[in-house]
Write a structure and sequence with these properties.
Number of helices: 2
Strand order of the largest sheet: 3-4-5-6
Strand content: 15-25%
Radius of gyration: 29 Å
Structural class: alpha+beta
Oligomer: single chain
């Protein structure tokens, strides 16, 4: 900014060069901020996915802990899977009796399987599996297609979680 020599209190304003430089600096800052948006959105999506998966695994394990131990053993011996349906926040949409297709608002499907005795976790210092401890394998996938569990889809990978389930009731 330059002031005129004749008038001490009046200034002429910014020169064209000063205005061009300030617009260039502002443009560089805006472009760099806009360039970070895709990375920020991907990070936000990944954190939402991790949070939803944590809620899904917690809900499934809680449902297994509420079951009778005989139901858990029946699922194990029958080598059956239990399918659960969840919305985009990881809230349970599964209703009983078990549905044959996904509910309308399904964003995630989880499949839980109680492992066989040979795959049960060992306690430290033990040589054989504990009969009151089972391992639950939970597979979570985004979407509504149950066939994804059988395919090796790179775009929609199956996420695996293994949780220990202890017998809480007094049945033998």
């Amino acid at each position: 900014m330059r002031c005129l020599k004749n008038h001490r209190l009046r200034c002429a304003g910014f020169t064209l060069a000063e205005a061009a430089i300030s617009v260039g600096i502002a443009a560089m800052v805006i472009v760099s901020i806009v360039g970070l948006l895709p990375f920020g959105l991907d990070t936000m999506h990944q954190s939402a996915l991790i949070s939803a998966d944590a809620r899904i695994v917690q809900a499934i394990i809680a449902s297994y802990q509420m079951k009778d131990w005989s139901e858990v053993l029946n699922q194990q011996t029958g080598a059956r899977n239990a399918d659960f349906y969840f919305d985009y926040q990881g809230m349970d949409l599964t209703t009983y009796p078990v549905q044959t297709s996904a509910p309308k608002d399904t964003s995630f499907i989880a499949r839980a399987q109680v492992t066989l005795d040979k795959d049960s976790p060992l306690m430290p210092g033990s040589t054989k599996p504990n009969t009151r401890l089972k391992q639950v394998v939970i597979k979570v996938v985004s979407g509504t297609d149950l066939k994804v569990f059988d395919n090796k889809d790179k775009k929609n990978p199956v996420r695996f979680y293994r949780m220990a389930l202890a017998q809480m009731d007094n049945t033998p």
